[in-house]
């Protein structure tokens, strides 16, 4: 069974702090996506990475895909209360058209 | 442009009853996916339609679950008879493209929360 382990599971930080969320697997993925989910809503896509070593930035969020395409990280600079939510990574195993979701990281940013 | 919509938003049924969930994908999206999250677990893939055809149904838990997509537009997911362990949030997603030829941007609906008592 392919698994995507996310860490940490829970994170509570003060506004202005930096944080990094990790997504790790022993499987190789054709692409990997990061989502953010609010209560009562479906996951919303933040970014897709497809090339090993790729780095993408979305304002204060920096996403990196591992060289071997087995892991990824999400770094948030100067976190704000509006960043609070559930962050999910999802990898597309090579040769499939479906996504394996990670266990999720629940982030709370305190004002 | 309307996003992916799901109906109902909540459903509470008793064990043994039947429930049908509906998903309307984004217009023009040939690819439609069903996912499920049960309490405390990660979101898990159930199946993938390309138009009206089932591309991959490897995630369907058992034969109590039946998904259809007649005409390649909206899709239904029927659970019959429902069991306690079927409780969870059922998500539908749609995408224009599929696979690793290009990145597969899936757009998710808000989900249907199913509670089986």
Helix content class of chain B = under 10%
Q: Largest beta sheet of chain B, briefly?
A: 7 strands, mixed
Count of extended strands of chain A:
11
Number of strands of chain B: 11
Written as H for each helix and E for each strand, in order along the chain, the element string of chain B is EEEEEEEEEEE
Q: Which overall shape of chain A is indicated by the principal axes computed on the Cα atoms? A: globular
Mean pLDDT of chain B: 91
Describe the protein's architecture and organization.
The complex is a heterodimer of chains A (111) and B (117). By secondary structure, chain A is mainly beta. Helix content of chain A is 0%, strand content 55%. Chain A has strands at residues 5-7, 10-14, 19-24, 29-37, 44-49, 55-58, 61-65, 71-76, 85-93, 100-101, 105-110. In chain A, strand 4 (29-37) and strand 5 form a beta hairpin. Chain A starts with a strand and ends with a strand. By secondary structure, chain B is an all-beta fold. Helix content of chain B is 0%, strand content 47%. In chain B, the strands form 2 sheets. In chain B, strands 2, 4, 5, 6, 9, 10 and 11 form a 7-stranded mixed beta sheet that branches. Chain B has a 4-stranded antiparallel beta sheet with strand order 1-3-8-7, with no helix packed on it. In chain B, strand 4 and strand 5 (44-50) form a beta hairpin. The radius of gyration of chain B is 14 Å and the shape is globular. Chain B starts with a strand and ends with a strand. The relative contact order of chain B is 0.32. The model of chain B has no long low-confidence stretch (mean pLDDT 91). Classes of the chains: A mainly beta (111), B mainly beta (117). At the A-B interface, strand 4, strand 5, strand 9 and strand 10 of A face strand 4, strand 5 and strand 10 of B.
What is the secondary structure topology, with strand pairs?
The complex is a heterodimer of chains A (111) and B (117).
Chain A: E1 5-7, E2 10-14, E3 19-24, E4 29-37, E5 44-49, E6 55-58, E7 61-65, E8 71-76, E9 85-93, E10 100-101, E11 105-110
Parallel strand pairs in A: 2-11
Antiparallel strand pairs in A: 1-3, 3-8, 4-5, 4-9, 6-7, 7-8, 9-10, 9-11
Chain B: E1 5-7, E2 10-13, E3 19-24, E4 31-37, E5 44-50, E6 53-56, E7 65-68, E8 75-79, E9 88-95, E10 107-108, E11 112-116
Parallel strand pairs in B: 2-11
Antiparallel strand pairs in B: 1-3, 3-8, 4-5, 4-9, 5-6, 7-8, 9-10, 9-11
